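Submission checklist for the structure archive. All mandatory fields must be present; incomplete records are returned to the submitter.

[x] Identifier: Pimeloyl-ACP methyl ester carboxylesterase
[x] Organism: Streptomyces prasinopilosus
[x] Residue count: 363
[x] Sequence attached
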Amino acid sequence: MSSTDLPSAAPVPPVPPATGLSEAAAVRVAEGERLRSVELPGVTLSVRSRPAAREGLPPALHIHGLGGSSQNWSSLMPLLEDVVDSEAVDLPGFGDSSPPADGDYSVSAHARAVIRYLDAAGRGPVHLLGNSLGGAVATRIAAVRPDLVRTLTLVSPALPELRVQRTAVPTGLLALPGVARLFTRATRGWTAEQRVRGVVALCYGDPGQVSPEAFRHAVQEMERRLRLPYFWDAMARSARGLVNAYTLGGQHGLWRQAERVLAPTLLLYGGRDRLVGFRMAGRAARAFRDSRLVTLPDAGHVAMMECPGAVAAAFRELLSDATDSAEKGDTLEPGATGAPDSAAGTAADEAVDGGGTAENPRG
């Protein structure tokens, strides 16, 4: 299966070029981090990184969830700097990445953008980590391009549920046409602080885990995002893309693609998750063929932010076991039997080939 097998979303009108972005506050870059822009066909991605403890460590790439950004991984990356060389990407239209030129925010489009980056940067295969929407994107990447993925780590992945939790319904409603506009009008008087308190209450098992400093930074980031002319459009279209992915059947269905993943997979589920049902943990463990399940009873939807130490410990165990298996020749390496033929042309690959990347360091 190649990335030509990524299903295309229904046509959507192109997003007009964003204006006034220079007036928005700068994206926060934590001490030790670096932020750079990577120009790819159809989109410019922002990539956050921090120096590894030493040269030669295997690369890792982190993908955030709906409404998040690469900053969601800033607490975890320092805890892994001695075992992997970490980068975190802002998906198109989120963080400091520009909206996609074609206005496509489907799960497949997000996956294609990440694939283009990995192919252009030559960093694959990577240890791929994803949260929520990013977990769905990472699952699709691992299924269609196993040559790009060493291991897969999913934190509360947004995989299809038949019975969605009531607390997740408002987020899903953003997918309906016009709802984002109505919500914007209804909440016009809300302050950034009020909005952040609502997000924290929804995403954390224990909101008290958020320090005053982290809360202040989140408010500043919310204020920045609300100034972006495409903020609500990116939220609504990505929510719609996720809902659409839930309805896909056959080989494009996310559960079917989970069954095709070859990489050793770590699944982390929070017992107090109000967005992804804890009951889905068992089904996920059965779907991914080479998986291990870690449950965090007190965690919410963003365990890598709420309890990064526990997530780091679980990832280290995965990495250790995967390394041992690789030394024994048990894992699939790029070019091995079952890996996609690198000569097979794909829409995503052809878009990147010859385009190269242009990087603009920031921070």
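[x] Structure attached
Curator remark: The chain is about 35% helix and 15% strand. The chain has one domain: 34-327.
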